[in-house]
Amino acid sequence: MTSMRNLTFVLLLGLVLNDCTPEKENSDANLLAAIALVGSAPNQSAFLETYSQIAFENYSDAYSDVVALRQKVTTFTAKASPSLSELNELKTYWRKARRSYLQTEIFRFSQGPIDNPALTGGVELEPLMNAWPLDEGYIDTVILTGTITKQGLIDANGGDCSGGNCPDGDSAKNISVGWHAIEYLLWGADAQNNFTPGTSITQTNFTTANGAGSAAAKRSAYLLYATEILEAHLLLLKNSWDPTLSTSYVAKFKSSATSFENILRGIARFSGGEWGGERMTGVFGGEQEEEHSCFSDNTKADFYFDAKGLDNLYNGTYSGSKTISGYGLKNLLGNESSYIKERIATAELFCLNEFTEDVSLNQACNSSIVSSRFDRMIATVNVSGSVTENADYNIFRYQIQPAVQEIAKALQRSAASYGVSIGDDGLVLQ
């Protein structure tokens, strides 16, 4: 017996083939688009299944990595006088945890739990986890001079600073929690023309021997609470994608008729607005504090693992504590598929060699990928750089960033073939 899907295909095809008059061109085009949608529906379902599996495993790994970080922070902050090597160990654990989390950023803007407070108990999680850029003056002069409590830190996460009350006159965001607040607590400010990660913080900034009211004791408590908050929020995201929980988002996601178009729109907005827009174009003026992880100089890893997150969905694969191999986006993008694949490869042209706390994590670099320190490389806009730094800036500015923008444009075109319009809202396309 002919299936309903095949019958629909035959009827639609017959309508197109039996009426080829010129005035029917537009109608025929719409029918052919309908045929494409009917034929691709099972493939979309397979992709949504793989997407949900990758989301769960990726958030599970990010959560586990932050648990490991929090455990180290708990031990560190319990000591009256922790050591420098112990502080460096925390920094390494922060970097390792970022690798997992950054791959989840590709789930942004797709109406999922990371951006949709309706799915997470009314709490919008992303601003509490990865808001950027933050004003370090706010942390120094408002947070660290007050009473440190866990709920107080959450309440102090005030978002954009405006008006005449911005600490140090800095209009960056009044951020008190999340990845970058923890980063600042561990490294401290990365002063202009300081071509290393922040060096103003040492183990003595966490010495609690002088009592709970001391500046160091407050910083120590702040570090622990902020890490515990991040851990709790990642658990919410992990549980949101857990297929074994009846309250999770997964069943609704896989059954929704809009999930696929939401994903296309979300990836386009993340690529063309956040990742290849604000974050990358923000450093074209050579300002170090505009880089995404300016305190740790982790920015190359930020950009690389954002690309890796898209790579995962494109191929339908994920390699972490568990391996996923399923149905990829590449099978749904038509003529744009190979074009997007090439641009993802370009977006990954970063050598991850800035791990000063544990040099064993550094990669060997070659001249075809960005190997310079990111802050030195972007500074060549305003000061003379080495031959390598100048060449690396050109790779970043004229190959990598345009490739990420082109991913957004290609997804706009791909979506149109499904009858979905992705406008320029939220995009910073050049």
UniProtKB/TrEMBL annotation:
Coiled coil location: none
Assigned GO CC terms: cell envelope
InterPro entries, A to Z: Imelysin-like (IPR018976), Imelysin_sf (IPR038352)
Signal as UniProt keyword: yes
Imelysin-like domain segment(s): 57-346
Subcellular location as annotated: Cell envelope
Keyword tags: Signal
Claim: Phosphoprotein is one of the keywords in the record: no
Top-level division of the source organism's lineage: Bacteria
Signal peptide: none
Name this polypeptide is given: Imelysin
Organism for this UniProt entry: Leptospira terpstrae serovar Hualin str. LT 11-33 = ATCC 700639
